[in-house]
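Usage

Read records sequentially. Each one opens with the input sequence:
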Amino acid sequence: MNQEQLSTIANSIFEAAAFVCPDEWVTPAHGTPTATTDAQTGAIVRFHGAANGWLLVAVHGDIETDIAANMLGRERVDTSDTTKEAIKEIANMICGRLMFDLGDHDRVVCEPPQWLESELQAAVQSGEVTGWARAYFDNGTADIVLSRTDLEAAL
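and closes with the structure output:
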């Protein structure tokens, strides 16, 4: 997985769906990425079929409320349930676009996104990370972490 491709896809989703544009993206220089995150919460989308794995969007700071407010066309969003749903939808859109761009969209099923809190750090460590990128916003960060195994390549 090309780290640049992951950040480009995530960037396009953040801009188109939530009207937020990261100030900077950080990706591993080379080699297998080591995912780290300061976030304690995030959304995960698991997928299976021709490829198995998961995509995690972990957010830190106030960026999650901006994303939710922008997606709903509101000044401010006051409920945590609304922000959770917004981040879950961002994760779902990034995963779907990633599967489409990688040519797996007709052979992979993406499960509904789930919200992670205390189990987020365990999820990051639960599989071989094949892609990682961090977006820096004015008021927080978002880590995009991908763990993907191509079953056809393994056969």
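Summary fields computed downstream for this record:
- The domain at 3-148 is CATH 3.40.1550.10 (Chemotaxis protein chec).
- The helical segments are 3-18, 63-72, 80-101, 120-124, 151-154.
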